[in-house]
Amino acid sequence: MSLLTLSLPTPPLDFSESHIVVKLGGYFAQKRVESAGRAFTKRARNIARGRSASHDETDDAATRAYDSQCDFDEWIPSGTEKIAENDSKGEGKSFYELYGPVFTANARFSANQPVPTLGGDDKPIDEVYAFYDFWNKFDSWRDFTHDSEHDVESAEHRDHKRWMAKKNEAVAKKKKKKEYARLASLVDRALAVDPRIRRVKQEEKDRKAQAKREKEEAAQRLINEENRKKQEQERAVQEAEEKQKEARKDAKMAKEKQKKLFRKVKKAFRELMVAASDQGLDGAIDVIKTEDLCDSLNMDALEALVTACGGSADKLDASGLAAVNDALAKL
């Protein structure tokens, strides 16, 4: 037999049902293992990520807890210090040097970053207001649980442990409240003496005072104008009344003068008629008719008769008696 024709024995093929089941079962089992392995790997990766994030958070919490235990100067200005920027002589402490470092020191406990700075005298006023608004809403991460009064781990049983935890929490809340009160006092005291705020308030106060003065001056001008018009009206009324009074006086005087002159004319007429009667002149009239004419005629008409009769008894003109009788006839 040659080497070319040499062949190894071939094992018989097993196509039995049991053999096929075993083979397929092993195949699918292997697939399930591989699938489970991939799922496990994915879950492990997610868990690792979660543990990493949790670890970071734990580290942050631990860092903050540690920082909270470190000595910290809680001093803040009393608010009664003389501020150089607000003093007319420039005496006292600089507001920015007094309050700036205190705000900077306390900014480390802010949960919100970045923390705005106090700034200087040239800081825009809107940024100054934003600074105080931030600190009025300050969120502190400072942890006071490290000063726990009770050691929870030493509790004898679960209820005792719960009681200790509750007491510790109450103490921590009280200290946290005190911390916020301290920060609120810092903000209030700084706000009260901040030269930038004081300038703005003074400017607003001056503006309101100026507006008030202008309003009062305008109102006073209006009152003065009304008083002037009223005085002018009163003066005009007074002048009119004085003119009327003077006119009445003049009229009265003129009337009295007229009456006096009329009486003089009547007297002259009576004397003329008496003289004519005494002389027995034709046309002479008696006393009764003379009085009738004096009572009936006006001064001008009576004066015309006097003139016609000569004007006076010593100058009696008999020709004028005709006019007297004509006037008497017309009564």
TrEMBL record:
Residues 199-255 are annotated as: Disordered. It comes from the Eukaryota. Pfam families: ZUO1-like_ZHD. GO terms for molecular function: Hsp70 protein binding; ribosome binding. GO terms for biological process: 'de novo' cotranslational protein folding; regulation of translational fidelity. One of its GO terms (cellular component) is cytosol. InterPro entries: ZUO1-like_ZHD (IPR054076), Zuotin/DnaJC2 (IPR044634). Residues 94-198 form the Zuotin-like zuotin homology domain. This is Zuotin-like zuotin homology domain-containing protein. It comes from Peronospora destructor.
